[in-house]
Amino acid sequence: MFEKFILAHKLFDMFTKKKIKPLQRGFYMFSSERAGDALIFVEEQYSCYKFLYIPGASTFYLSKEDFENSVNSQVLCFVEQLPQDIYEESLMLSGPSKEIIIETNEN
Q1: Predicted confidence (pLDDT) per residue in 3-23, tens digit
Q2: In what order do the strands lie in the sheet with 48-54?
Q3: What is the H or E stretch that residue 2 is in?
């Protein structure tokens, strides 16, 4: 009976909880572990979000769940939506770069 309650609660959360998505041209800053580093949102992919990691202008992938958890726990904070010209210039200056992929251990 308790398992049914937990399952019902999880289903309720899935359908009523608002998903957090990065804003187009969104500029985000890390507040703790990587304090001082920043992310610029580039695009949504199938199971993750693609960002430009500053400093270094590396491509940075963050799973949708990790992004939402990072924002909810205030590890990652929204700063501003970049103007279109600054956003485009940031992407052009990044050029060829290495990729950083963050993986989570889901059981």
Answers
A1: 544 444 444 455 545 678 898
A2: 76-81, 26-30, 38-44, 48-54, 58-63, 99-101
A3: helix 2-16
Please give the DSSP secondary-structure letter assigned to residue 35: T
Residues 48 and 32 sit within 8 Å (Cβ to Cβ) = no
Alpha-carbon radius of gyration of the chain: 16
Domains and CATH numbers, the chain: 20-101 (2.30.30)
Residues 6+ apart with CB under 8 A from 33: 75
What pTM was estimated for this model as a whole? 0.71
Which run of H or of E encompasses 8? helix 2-16
Written as one string, the DSSP assignment of 41-75 is EEEE-SSEEEEEEETTTEEEEEEHHHHHHHHHTTS
